[in-house]
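Q: I have 196 residues here and want to know how they pack in 3D. Can you give me a structure?
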Amino acid sequence: MNADAPTPVWFLDVDGVINSIGTPRAKAGPYELVHVAPSHEPTTYPIRYSPAVIGAINALSRAGLVRVVWLTTWGADARDRVAPAVGLDTFEVLPGLADLEPYLAELGLTTLAWRSHNGRRWWKLAMVYRWLDQYGDRPVIWTDDDLDPEIKAELRAVRDVPVHLVTPMPRPGLMADHLDAIEAFARGCAASAVAS
């Protein structure tokens, strides 16, 4: 890989992506269950995850094919609580919902939009733009079960970068075919950088 070429940034969500919402069907493969409590509340939440998916994410990151950045309502708890519980490496993290209040004006948000419906700007898309503004445009991988066609279209229209956007079914979340496509995209970006 060209040392000057930017590695694709992978914006990674927790719930519905690495955490299956509900018990996956047996054909999805083996899943393990842990319970994790966010730092701001005593309640624990079930995290159903595929060790194969966790291993693939770590392998892609360790190989330098992707730069993983948490983008989830879990915020720093994704890095500090979820990742250790499921065996993920330490990745950068963007503020979660509980931490966004100071950023609303900077993000061009007057209220926090859970999703992009009704012409309201989605907070996660605003965070993607903020990250790219800070670190420079680069290829984007984004895995989020709430990514809808409007968000995908806007990101493609606003940023002239290669994108690979994955909207997994919340149950079972990311699957082997998603990870194969993510790896192919990342390797294609690396090959393009070498060729240029």
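Q: Anything worth noting?
A: The mean pLDDT is 88. The helical segments are 51-62, 76-86, 123-135, 149-158, 176-195.
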